[in-house]
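ok trying this again, last paste got cut off
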Amino acid sequence: MKKKGFLAALLSLGCGAAVAALWALGVFEGAELKSLDYRFRFTPQARRASADVVIVTIDEKSLLEFKRNGIVWKWPRDFYAALVQYLHQCGARAVVFDVLFSDADVDRKGTDAEQTDGAFADAMKEAGNVVLAMQLAPIQSLTLGDNALIRPPEVSLLPPGAAASLEGYPNAVIPIELFQKSAFSLGASNYTEDRDGICRRLPLFSSYQGKPVPHLGMAAYLAAKRIDRVEFLGKDRLRAGDDVIPLDPRGNFLIYWYGRGGPRGAFKYYSFADVISSLQSAARKEKPLIPASELKDKVVMVGASAAGLFDYRSTPFTEVERYPAMEIHATIASNLLQKDFLVRAPRPVPLAAIFLFAALVCCLFLLGSRIHEAILATVVCAAGWAVLAEALFRYGRLWLDLAAPEASLAFAFAASAVTSYAIEGRARRQLRTMFSRYLSPVVIREVLEQRQAVALGGQELVGTVFFSDLKDFTSTSEKMAAPDLVAFLNEYFSLTTDVILRNEGLLDKYIGDAMMAVFGAPLPSKTHARQACAVALEIQALLRRTPLSRSPHPLAATTRIGLNTGPMVVGNIGSLSRMDYTAIGDTVNLASRLEGANKTYGTRILISGSTFDQARASFETRELDLIAVKGKKSAVVLYELLAKAGELSKEEAAKKRAFEEALHWYQDRVFDKALAGFESVLAGCPDDAAARLYVGRCRQFLQEPPPPDWDGVYHSTTK
């Protein structure tokens, strides 16, 4: 027993020290950040967001309404002047623009650019509470803007010289001089991303030309409370007015996220167009769409959420819904106004848990009499620590490290199990019995002998699924003897599989004459969509120039391919006796449906909008339709993959442009022009089945127009 006690103490110390060292080196930080993201998503606190922070958004509705009146993006500055005027009339406490006004207004027919800039400047000066954005840049050589900083943000930092310790930037995009003179203050609209590309923390102050510049969210808070002096209380705290704001050890502010972004998220959204309409209604003595009472005493954040303006950032909620950039600033402003401060637990706390858990598990394994008690205690500790971390986070806004203590439990469990196995045959048999319900005997033997690491569970990742199927295979196979049929398929699969494997694809399975592959698994890849598209084109080219010897019609070996990009679950899936490494999920199902949709459009390669988004720069495509495949209610944009970028002939490029122009008329319900366009495509290419399909649809809609709520979606009834 003394020998076991010594061994347990030694193993406890070794496991704890190993995990603690990895933790100190930051090995678990990535997993810890993901666990923090999960906590935000698992327990969103939208009701905690300050009702005094609202958002005026440049959304799709605003772009469309102004475009109908002949005003396209970018809008003249007197639009912003009108916005500020109405917000000032409503009694807004502060107006914050997450828009860079670094250039004078563009010349417009019948409009003096200086006049529109002047109107905006006058409105800001009259309001006296407008904060404008500036963009700090870390590279001096970049010519980002010609505007000098003539009016630094009017905030004093204490103690004297505190600005020297801030991160300095040598360059910046700054509003024009007229706007600097008229605005209340400036704020930096920069974003700080962790190593995984997600924004979780930001410095509340940076330095430009030796002057302190508050972050835009901090600038909104200072403007709302009319604070002009901030005191740094060491590296981990600062005082603004009566509020003491905690910082992380690097001086960054940890953002406390309230929920997903967008109009259905934590903050109240108002459309830019609705605010302008309300101003016009108020001028006519009519009831405004947005009453002044809704904006009185509010901190109003102005920014873009229209998809075409691409002003989105990665946050813990990006997986749920796209997150508009200005909402990050709104969140920080709300954090500061509500005192919703996220604080990470001191490092001694998780460090103590690491050693405590390692000692507990090792002692129970090596000194206990029953192995199931050790297993149960490990599970209880793991679950208890997770529950504690969640409770402290939810009710106390305390970030308690989860990854390293849980890793300590897992590491100690594994080390103790191996040690126990090595010194006791009974423990070895117990382990074999325990795992026999989950693995085949062959895999168990490999695990126990440590010949290879086997991933027992699945993982969710984003990749591109490839589905292919031979055209008219049933009729072709009826003409062939069984040996010839097998040889034909073997030859076909040999050619296509070689292309897939050579391009880092994972061959998932063969299903008769069909084939499934996954790009981006098991190892993640940033180019999986482009790889899949390149493979699809290469296979088609290879089959066109390589007749299959066993085919009764050597050049008739035509395959249809469907590609779809998105999240999927990949891992070992199967029964107790046999498991296969495969992918499952809606992304896989949609790829299969796209392969089948080739029959409808007479195409060879169809890709989804998600694949198109990631591969558009490298390939030539033709938009085909907005389709809801069988079994799905939501629609996807459908594209035909034509060639690599720049490889279309002039005739093919002209046909593509003519087809897409006709398609846009079709989507806009101008069916007579669409019909003429598609008939023109057919005249030049009689074999274009997609154009022929649309000719039929247009003729039908000209006779029987679709209902007013028709959204242009084609609902497929076949697989």
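PB: full thing came through this time. Residues 493 and 515 are 8 Å apart (CA to CA).
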